[in-house]
Amino acid sequence: MSENRKLIKIATAGSVDDGKSTLIGRLLYDTKSLTTDKIEAIERSSKQRGYDYLDFSLATDGLVAEREQGITIDVAHIYFNTAKTNFIVADTPGHVEYTRNMVTGASTSQVAIILIDARKGVIEQTYRHFFIANLLRISHVVVAINKMDLVDYDEEVYLKIKADFDALVAKSDFSEDQITFIPVSALKGENIARKSEEMPWYVGNTLLDHLEVLEPADLEPSSVARFPVQYVIRPKTEAWHDFRGFSGMLYGGNLKVGDEVTLLPSLNTSKIKSIHYFDQEIQEAAPGSSIAITLETEVDLSRGDMLVKSGELPASEKQISATICQVNNKALTVGKKYILQHGVNRVLAKVDQIESRIHTDFTGAEDAHSLKLNDIGRVHFRLSKPIHFDPYKTNKSNGSFILIDEAEYDTVSVGFIE
Amino acid sequence: MNNLLTPNPKEAESIHIIREVAAQFERPVLLFSGGKDSITLVRLAQKAFYPAKIPFPLLHVDTGHNFPETIEFRDKLVEELGLELIVRNVQDSIDQGKVREERGRYSSRNSLQTTTLLDAIEEFKFDACIGGARRDEEKARAKERVFSVRDDFGQWDEKNQRPELFDMLNGKIHNGQNVRCFPISNWTELDVWEYIKTENIEIPSIYFAHEREVFFRDGMIWTANEHVYREAHEEVEVRMVRFRTVGDMTCTAAVLSEAVSLEDVVGEIRQSTISERGARIDDKRSEAAMETRKKVGYF
């Protein structure tokens, strides 16, 4: 993997027939990421279906049931590279009933592209998708106003939609500089990789140019170091007789040899003796590193525990409030017990109180006794043991959790801690 | 000592996933074919547990129609790294009458592997099978989760997958179920090649250009030997070729190539206008070939 190529993770959102698949297909095509055999397959299938254009959705809708119905059911992950950047696109479904899959796809993304059909403007689905981008605190949103070719590339249409969307931004936690508007025609390739001559009134970047100027470091909230212990490495070999390495992924800030650390939940303290990345010893690790750490003192520390710098402790609570999104058919009800997985740690959780169901059109909330599939609400939980967390807005990894059904083992909800 | 480690995000994610497998399951296994993806998995697993050994065995489902170079490489790797290797043979499943050898022009043992794999899972009670599948390979693969739950018939329920949020992996399963785990889901073919080059990882010689007896059919280059069905008029010639994927000989086509070093190979992949799966004969059977196989338990 080229070391100087950055990685940008994108989720696409938009209503059915807004042209998401066409947009992605176009991005792949224009970056020469679609190979000849795949283009041929698209041509073949398009012809078989009697279409008079290339149906790029055939490249992304991978399941028989999707092609049958012409809709996207589940998230597809799609990859393309430019000379400077690796991109991962989570292509998420537009249908209301698959909102959970949009949350799934968007959870790992730093950027959301929300598509709007220029003929239809801002509609209910736009609210919902923008609300989810807001809930997930996606760092950057690109509003792609698509199908400009069908409205004669009219600037007035673009300005009207932008004004409507700006009204939505005002109700959200986003600031204006986190939102970028680009008028495009995915079908014709206008303002995707090539600057459109049809829209001289638009002076900004093309979509691809815009995605390339984004920097991964600017797309993550800043935080202090959090190191959840994932797996304890004990070789018990001649050469590594006393080695006890605490392995895991580092979230938030840096950790370096000599740092004084506090171990949770015991609150014992120690110092970092060494940091290992495979057969190398390193002095300091940056966020996102999968490493192993040894400590200067013998301590009790196992999977699910957490190591942090002394003086930078997270909250440790047995009672938490969170916004949750229900991603399973079974409703969440008061009194129900779940396995709560917070990073790599699991505790039991009981639903104490459902405070409200939140309207995804930014019009507020209502009282609720249960949360059904695709509902978003505020819930209060009681836990069997404290978890060590930060608010979701300061550390996404340490501020989110999933709920697992105790009997069926399905993942039923995702939570964002305040 | 290196000063600051700035992680390669895809590698770090893969190591995280492999450690989750080891932590969440009782009896994981790494599905090893001797191809570049499973070789990469082995390196990532080494990194995940170093200085300890990889805490699970390797399973090779041998079709009996593998390239001899691959088998030789497999045995050497296992020996050098001190790994535990389990081999189960498709030939045994055929002998037991569980599957029937295909006949004719496009006959292949590729899909027969599924039965042998499912039997091995049952025999060893594996609850997690780590595989080198990548989402960029094929459109049904693009829909795959990192932890993909299969029922006790090995079936993939594509319409009812567990949501996967952030990097939290839910590997809780019932008796009889198992999870297919895909640590390099987010890698592209080019990522794998660039990684093999950067890490200087050894790979079987058939990935590099060499002279081989081949014949041409349907615009593809087939290996000419006793395992591959060939008609009398299909003429054998010696050409400089290499392979982009290493599977069963009956379904893996070669490409014309002069690439003799990793640098050449990476350069060739960068320039290529044909996808890796374009050389997989098994995928050309129908538009949903991969999905159909996955539904019945193919990895």
From TrEMBL, chain A:
Annotated keywords: ATP-binding, GTP-binding, Nucleotide-binding, Nucleotidyltransferase, Transferase
The keyword Nucleotide-binding appears for this protein: yes
Pfam family, one: GTP_EFTU
Keyword presence, ATP-binding: yes
Record EC number: 2.7.7.4
Location of the Tr-type G domain: 5-222
SUPFAM superfamilies to which the protein is assigned, alphabetical: EF-Tu/eEF-1alpha/eIF2-gamma C-terminal domain (SSF50465), P-loop containing nucleoside triphosphate hydrolases (SSF52540), Translation proteins (SSF50447)
Name by which UniProt lists this protein: sulfate adenylyltransferase
Species assigned in the record: Algoriphagus halophytocola
Automatic annotation (TrEMBL), chain B:
Gene3D superfamilies registered for this protein in UniProt: HUPs (3.40.50.620)
Alphabetized GO MF terms: sulfate adenylyltransferase (ATP) activity
Enzyme class: transferase
Statement: the UniProt record of this protein carries the keyword Nucleotidyltransferase: yes
Keyword terms of this UniProt record: ATP-binding, Nucleotide-binding, Nucleotidyltransferase, Transferase
Domain Phosphoadenosine phosphosulphate reductase: residue ranges: 28-253
Signal sequence segment: none
InterPro entries referenced in this protein's UniProt entry, alphabetically: PAPS_reduct_dom (IPR002500), Rossmann-like_a/b/a_fold (IPR014729), SO4_adenylTrfase_ssu (IPR011784), Sulfate_adenylyltrnsfr_sub2 (IPR050128)
Keyword Amino-acid biosynthesis recorded: no
Enzyme Commission number(s) of this protein: 2.7.7.4
Family the entry assigns: Belongs to the PAPS reductase family. CysD subfamily.
NCBIfam families, A to Z: CysD (TIGR02039), PRK05253.1 (NF003587), PRK12563.1 (NF009214)
Protein name: Sulfate adenylyltransferase subunit 2
Native source organism of the sequence: Algoriphagus halophytocola
